[in-house]
Write a structure and sequence with these properties.
By secondary structure, this protein is of the alpha/beta class. It has 15 helices and 13 strands.
């Protein structure tokens, strides 16, 4: 096996558009690394450090001897622009000397570090080959930026982006959808749009908020605790959550929190066993259902479960703005109800019943087995006050 004298400290991140670029890791980690939403560089080995200049030169020389026609280079890690301009210019000069086919060098860049460079330094970096930077603005709203501990403001971000443009450096700006939460979503959106209009970046990307591993799962369990889980093809999502908790949050357990769940895909197959397709968009047409193929679980349930042609397993009355389906029943039997219906579905699947008769008697028997006083009828099936949807 050939020895490659190039050292990477994992994990290494790059923008999707740099997929064909040579990744040169000239720094490790992020110079700020305090943003509340980001876990990219939180591992112990990712503490911010700068690779010795002689090591960078040796790696560039090796690539020049072993690879031909390299056209793009991406300088990693989190914010190479944090380097002193002299050092960054030396690296760009080495790339130009040893990799003459390179036409573009790019890197991540925070507005905070741009403010530490003069206009002359930014122009020198462009002339040396730094053609594009990826700027995580995240939001244009000062309250949101402060809340996520970004270390920048609306105005500092605007100033930095415009100064980069004046130097000739292209900017790919990233805004995070969801980072303002529900309460601050409007001001986050409006001020982010204002930031984009003030700076006119060459590229603008809307990313999705992704909480650190484990934390998102903990928030999910805290939010959904005590609720029943339901959706169309929930089995697929349920198994993903099981594996994710085992991998990233072993103290949590889907099976312990929700030993049963409601899958309207299984319900549809039971109530209408001879349909050519059970995709929601097809069921809406085939069964003449009133519903929306929005890929949202609440619409899935309303479309599939509320049919007058067969006994109803779920009878909903309204949906509030917090993501719950409410039922006009008592809440003493939440766990029993979801377990009973899930068990009933399992029994019907195993028996391969044609479902010409209502499953209500089977569900009623399940409740009797659990020593409850609930009588289940086709029109009053789920004695549940709220149903969390995934």
């Amino acid at each position: 096996m050939r020895y490659i004298p190039v050292q990477y400290i994992d994990p290494v991140f790059r923008p999707p558009s740099e997929a064909r670029s040579l990744i040169l890791q000239v720094t490790n980690g992020c110079s700020w690394n305090k943003c509340t939403y980001c876990d990219m560089y939180t591992q112990p080995q990712k503490k911010f450090s700068v690779k010795p200049e002689e090591d960078v030169k040796r790696e560039i020389e090796w690539f020049s001897q072993n690879y031909r026609g390299i056209q793009r280079v991406f300088l990693a890690d989190g914010d190479v622009v944090a380097l002193p301009s002299r050092r960054l210019l030396n690296i760009l000069d080495m790339i130009r000397e040893y990799l003459p086919s390179v036409t573009r060098v790019a890197s991540y860049c925070s507005p905070r570090n741009v403010t530490r460079k003069t206009d002359g330094e930014l122009k020198a970096l462009f002339d040396a080959g730094l053609r594009q930077v990826y700027v995580g603005a995240e939001s244009g709203d000062d309250f949101v930026l402060k809340s996520i501990n970004k270390g920048d403001t609306h105005q500092s971000t605007v100033d930095s982006l415009n100064r980069l443009a004046d130097a000739g450096i292209k900017r790919s700006v990233m805004i995070i959808n969801g980072v303002g939460g529900i309460k601050f979503s409007e001001q986050h959106a409006l001020n982010s749009a204002l930031l984009a209009n003030k700076t006119q970046p060459e590229f603008l990307a809307a990313l999705v908020l992704n909480l650190p591993h484990g934390e998102a799962l903990q928030r999910f369990v805290g939010f959904a605790h005590g609720c029943a889980i339901a959706g169309h093809n929930t089995t697929y999502d349920y198994q993903i959550m099981v594996q994710q908790m085992r991998r990233y949050a072993p103290a949590l357990s889907m099976e312990r929190e929700w030993p049963a769940y409601l899958d309207t895909l299984k319900m549809a197959r039971l109530l209408h066993p001879r349909q050519p397709s059970y995709k929601l968009k097809d069921l809406l047409t085939q069964l003449h259902l009133e519903g929306t193929n929005s890929h949202l679980a609440n619409d899935d349930i309303l479309a599939v479960a509320l049919t007058d042609e067969q006994p109803v397993l779920i009878h909903t009355h309204n949906i509030n703005h917090n993501g719950y389906l409410y039922f006009p029943f008592v809440d003493d039997y939440t766990d029993a109800a979801i377990t009973a219906i899930s068990n009933a579905i399992s029994v019907l699947h195993k028996s391969k019943s044609d479902i010409t008769q209502a499953p209500a008697p089977i569900i009623s028997q399940e409740f009797k087995n659990r020593n409850t006083n609930v009588t289940i009828t086709p029109s009053r099936t789920l004695p549940n006050t709220r149903l969390f949807y995934t």
